[in-house]
Amino acid sequence: RCKTCKDRGLWLPGLRAVREMSTQGGPTPPFSTLSVTRPASMVTQVELHRPEKRNAMNKAFWSEMVDCFSQIAEDPECRVVVVTGAGKVFTSGIDLMDMAGNILQPTGDDAARTSWNLRRLVKKYQETFSVLEKCPKPVVVAVHGACVGAGVDLITACDIRLCTQDAWFQVKEVDIGLAADVGTLQRLPKVIGSRSLVNELALTSRKMYSDEAKSSGLVSRVFPDKETMMSGAMELAEEIASRSPVAVQGTKINLIYSRDHSVAEGLEYMATWNMSMLQTQDVIKSAQASMEKKSPKEVPFSKL
Ligand SMILES: CC/C=C\C=C\CC(=O)SCCNC(=O)CCNC(=O)[C@H](O)C(C)(C)COP(=O)(O)OP(=O)(O)OC[C@H]1O[C@@H](n2cnc3c(N)ncnc32)[C@H](O)[C@@H]1OP(=O)(O)O
C-alpha cells in the first residue's frame, strides 16, 4: 500500500495483470461498494462492486463515490481513472430496496421542510456523479451488460465511454415514476447529437443496444467482450497517463468549460488558464522529446 494512498485511505495494491483485476477480490476498505486498485502506473481502477445485486447503488454507494473521487482528485499517483462494474452487468441503477425509504418517505415538520429535505437529498445524489466531472483526471468508463437508470447518469459524467457488444443502456426513470434527476437529462443531450433520440430514450425508457450507442455517439468504441474491452481500456488509460498531467488535466477542464459556455467565453477561460500553465516544465520536456522523436512515455513528468 503506497504511503500517499494509505494517508488518504485508498487501498491500491500495486500493479496487477488486467485479467486478474477486473472481477477478483471485493470492495477495498474503507469502501463497501467499490473496489479501488492500481492496475498500472498512474492508472486507478474504480470497480462498482456489489455483483450479487448487479451493482445496484445503495445508500453507501452514493457517499462512497464522493469520498473516492475526492481522494483520487488529490492523488498525485493517479493521472487517469477507469470505472468498471464487477460481475454480470455494469449496473442495475439505484437500489430499489435500500433507497425507497429515503425517497418515498421524506421527513420534515411541514411541507416546506419536507421539500427542503428532499431537495438536499437530490442535490447530494447529484454530487455522486458530478464528482466524476469535477475530478481533473480523465475518467474512462467501460460498460458491459446492463447499464440502467442511474448507470446512465453515471456514464454521462465520464469523459470517455467504451462498451461491450452485449451492453445495453436504459433511461429507466419514467418506468419508476421519476424524471431522471441526477444528470442524464442535463448531460445526455450534450453527449448525443440528436435531441430527438435523447427525448425518445428518456420519454419511453426503451433499451438502446451497443450498435446504436456507437452510432449515436454515446460510446466511442464497442468491444466483442469484457476481456477485450478491459485490455482496450487499459491501453487507452496508459496512453493518457503517459502524457503531461498539466496538459491532460488542463484539456479536460477546458473541454468541460467550453461545453457549457460560448466560444468567446471558452477562449477567455483558456487564455487565463494557459497564462500560468504554459510556464510548466512539461512543455519544454514534451517539445524536446517530440523533436528527438521520442515517445511521451519516455518523458519523466513531475507529479501533479
Ligand atoms: C434521487 C434518485 C436518484 C437516482 C434515481 C435513479 C433511478 C434508477 O436507477 S431507475 C432504474 C432502477 N433499476 C431497475 O429497474 C433495474 C432492476 N434490475 C433488473 O432489471 C435486472 O436485475 C437486470 C439489471 C436486468 C439484471 O438481471 P439479472 O442478471 O437477471 O439479475 P436479477 O436476477 O434480476 O437480480 C439479481 C439480484 O440483484 C437484485 N437487483 C437487481 N437490480 C436491483 C436494483 N436496482 N435494486 C435492488 N436490487 C436489485 C435482485 O433483486 C436480485 O437479488 P436477489 O437477492 O438475488 O433476489
Brief write-up:
The protein has helices at residues 3-7, 18-21, 59-74, 100-104, 111-134, 150-156, 184-191, 195-204, 210-216, 226-241, 245-259, 263-277, 281-291; strands at 34-40, 43-48, 80-85, 139-143, 146-148, 160-164, 168-170, 208-209, 221-223. It is an alpha/beta fold and 304 residues long. Strands 1-2-3-4-6-9 form a 6-stranded mixed β-sheet, with helices on both faces. A 3-stranded mixed β-sheet has the order 5-7-8.
Structure description:
- Helix 3 links the parallel strand 2 and strand 3.
- This protein is of the alpha/beta class and 304 residues long.
- It has 13 helices and nine strands.
- The N terminus is likely disordered.
- The chain is 47% helix and 13% strand.
- The strands form two sheets. It has a six-stranded mixed beta sheet with strand order 1-2-3-4-6-9, with helices on both faces.
- Bound molecules: ligand LTDHYY67.
- Ligand LTDHYY67 binds next to helix 5 and strand 5.
- Belongs to the enoyl-CoA hydratase/isomerase family.
- Pathway: Lipid metabolism; fatty acid beta-oxidation.
The average pLDDT score comes to 92
CATH superfamily of the largest domain: 2-enoyl-CoA Hydratase, Chain A, domain 1
Bound molecules: ligand LTDHYY67
CA-based shape: globular
Number of helices: 13
- Rg (C-alpha, Å): 20 Å
* Main structural class: alpha/beta
* Topology, number of strands: 9
CATH topology tier name of the largest domain: 2-enoyl-CoA Hydratase, Chain A, domain 1
| First and last CA, distance | 19 Å
The strands making up the biggest β-sheet line up spatially as 1-2-3-4-6-9
